[in-house]
Amino acid sequence: MCKGKIVDAIAAKGLQSIEDVRAHTKASASCGSCTGLVEKLLKCTLGDTFQAGSSVKPVCGCTSYGHDEIRKLIRVKEMRTIPEVMQELGWTSANGCSKCRPALNYYLLCEYPGEYRDDAQSRFVNERVHANIQKDGTFSVVPRMWGGMTSAAELRAIADVVDRYQIPSVKVTGGQRIDLLGVKKDQLPAVWADLNKAGLVSGHAYGKALRTVKTCVGSEWCRFGTQDSTAMGIALERATWGAWTPHKVKMAVSGCPRNCAEATVKDFGVVAVESGWELHVGGAAGMHVRATDLLCKVVTAEEVLEYCCAFLQLYREEGRYLERPWPWIERVGVAYLQRKIVEDAQSRRALQARFRHAVSFTQKDPWAERAAGAEAHEFTPLAEVTA
Amino acid sequence: MKLDWIDVGLVSDIPPMGARVVRSGDGDIAVFRTADDQVFALYDRCPHKGGPLSEGIVHGRSVTCPLHNWVISLETGGVEGPDQGCAAQIAVSVDQGRIRLALPRAARAAHG
Predict the structure, then answer these.
(1) Which of A64, A149, A335, B78 is a good FRET partner for A372, with 20 to 30 A between their CA atoms?
(2) CATH tag for A210-361 (out of 3.40.50.720, 3.40.50.10860, 3.30.413.10, 1.40.20.10)
(3) To which CATH superfamily is domain A133-205 assigned?
(4) Domain boundaries of chain B, sorted by first residue
(5) Do residue B52 and residue A120 have CB atoms under 8 angstroms apart?
(6) ipTM score for this prediction
């Protein structure tokens, strides 16, 4: 996409915003890394009439409301379903779009844990069928390996599944898990049933959810390890799995400041030191690389769990849908997190309690439910037609 | 080519704002049900990169492809927005809640 085309489109079609440019030219519509440049072109072409970020950015073309306003209104007006929100807030489309429906579904799920009925049709395919769609329409399957630990029995079960279902690729992921690629959709329930028999459950590698807790071997094996980082990682993953979040969440625990688990580029990273644990937040190692901010230091493993749950709950309640923790933290400032999580023990414990309440409803293996027959229509064709 | 109306199942077998697949010798067919119970059928291939439209989010009379978010009109198979292309359509009739697709003559359906 060249500059001339974008400038021409802005002038010829009267485009006013980044969203307009995206819709008409596709510039800034894929990875978004050129958004700043496109904004400059808008400013340059429109002059003073271009108002970048001066007003609230709407969630999508179906509404003029932004994410924060919608969440606030859901709470204040006690709206409990997606159609109710759309009706009450004057949505301009009959039933939303692929941007607003997943956002509303998440906000309602977060606001009314245990009460809101999750709307499968408002979830992206991966979260609807609990596997990652691939470019050829097959799926990938990633079992949970708590803290990145596995065993001979688990590996044998995985190998047997690979043979039995002739799964074409087996790959070790960046988050210390095993990815089975190329599984056909109608095979998924049987693959899950076999993995379940070996005690393997969904790794949520497909979700806006807690993904993985990466660990190093820590003080149990490493001559430099200061704390048992593996056990800490397992405990963190056991406490936080199954939590739906605004975007994916990755965590790590390193057993010493050499940081072999790369904790300082994770959303929540723990680094063990002789005297306890450093808690780091807001790291990223994707399109944008960002080192974490230090949240605080704590002494015990129980404190690590408490602060982590409080952090995740604050992010769940205040992060915008599809906003990773790092841009949220840059928006509100790490000092705000410290006030809510570190300095105010009552606030921290309340956040942790709300987190635990929320996950008490969702820490159920979605694979086991589907292997037992739930949502069967997802995995079987409506009909087969032969000539 | 001569076409026959082939019964592929009930409207109620498809979730509202959802889709199911009909397997056929010519490739998978995505059968969509809108919020207001209209039924549409397209070959299950996005004109962009062949993504399975049956896995997309259905909104209004459109579906968003799960691979790269192209929006396809269920009514025409055409691509909405700045992109170009068309997904092949299949005629649908609904009678008393049963869905029939216009398919090449001599096709037979086994119901899933």
Answers:
(1) A149
(2) 3.30.413.10
(3) Sulfite Reductase Hemoprotein;Domain 2 (3.90.480.10)
(4) 3-104
(5) no
(6) 0.93
A93 inside 8 A of chain B by CB = yes
pLDDT digits (tens, 9 = 90+) for A9-31: 888 888 887 878 887 888 887 77
Interchain CB distance below 8 Å, B106 and A387: yes
CB of A140 within 8 A of CB of A207? no
Q: Do B67 and A135 touch (CB under 8 A)?
A: yes
CATH for the A3-49 domain, from 1.10.10, 2.40.10, 1.10.3470, 1.20.272: 1.10.10
Three-state SS letters, chain B = CCEEEEEEEEHHHCCCCEEEEEEECCCCEEEEECCCCCEEEEECCCCCCCCCHHHCEEECCEEECCCCCCEEECCCCEEECCCCCECCEECEEEECCEEEEEEECCCEEEEC
Give B29's contacts in chain A (Cβ within 8 Å). 385
A52 falls in which pLDDT band (50, 70, 90)? low
Q: Is B2 on the interface with A (CB under 8 A)?
A: no
Cβ within 8 Å, pair B59-A95: yes
Q: B102 — contact with chain A (CB < 8 Å)?
A: no
For B3-104, CATH number? 2.102.10.10
Stated pTM of the model: 0.91
Where exactly are the structural domains of chain A? 3-49, 67-116, 133-205, 210-361
Contact A387 B107 (CB under 8 A): yes
- Asked if the C-beta of B25 comes within 8 angstroms of chain A's C-beta atoms, the answer is yes
